[in-house]
Design goal:
single chain, 221 residues, little secondary structure
Length: 221
């Protein structure tokens, strides 16, 4: 379903929850609804349950809902539960600024093969609540957290100390939290303690104006 409805800005209403229910051989949802700016309503929690008696083989959710400005409601906790072969969530919800509520703690719990969360929630200005500590705990192969939460300026609370504890393959934190104006509290001293391969911290905390306290001496040790 690569770019099936890309730039269909006149499509309205909600996405049917069983739209892909019988498509067990689907390999990608890259750009499927990209720039469908008038689609509205919440994302159905069953949308990507395409098993139909077979193993799910979807590998990409790259830009699936990118620039779907009118999609609203919370992100379903089990949205990707049956997509165990996924490699990338690059820009999945990019600029979905009408999505609301907290990011579900187990949203990526079954996606153990993911390598990129670059721009996943970038520009999701309506997401609220704290970043859940176990969000990436089951994604050991991730190499890229570039701009993951970029401009998520309604996320609140402290950055969890163990947020990246199990992501030992990471090489970049390029603008990961940039312009997250409402994240507060001190930067955890052990935030990057288990990420020895990182080469890029470009803009990681740029314009995080509510972070407070001292910079931990061993932050990049």
């Amino acid at each position: 379903f690569y770019e099936t409805f890309v730039n269909c800005s006149g499509l309205t209403g909600s996405i049917p929850g069983t739209l892909f229910a019988t498509n067990a051989q689907v390999g990608t949802f890259q750009g499927t609804f990209k720039q469908c700016s008038s689609l509205s309503g919440p994302i159905p929690g069953t949308l990507f349950d395409t098993r139909n008696g077979a193993d799910n083989i979807v590998t990409s959710f790259h830009s699936t809902f990118s620039q779907c400005y009118s999609l609203n409601g919370s992100i379903p906790a089990d949205l990707f539960k049956f997509n165990t072969a996924v490699i990338t969530f690059l820009s999945t919800f990019y600029n979905c600024n009408s999505l609301t509520g907290s990011i579900p703690a187990g949203l990526f719990a079954t996606n153990a093969q993911v390598t990129s969360f670059s721009n996943t929630f970038s520009g999701c200005t309506g997401l609220t609540g704290t970043i859940p500590e176990p969000l990436f705990a089951n994604n050991p192969d991730v190499t890229n957290f570039g701009s993951t939460f970029y401009k998520c300026n309604s996320l609140t609370g402290s950055i969890p100390a163990d947020l990246f504890k199990f992501n030992t393959a990471v090489t970049t934190f390029d603008r990961t939290f940039s312009q997250c104006f409402s994240l507060n509290g001190p930067i955890p001293a052990t935030l990057f303690a288990n990420n020895p391969l990182v080469t890029i911290f470009n803009g990681t905390f740029s314009s995080c104006t509510s972070l407070s306290g001292p910079i931990p001496e061993a932050l990049f040790a």
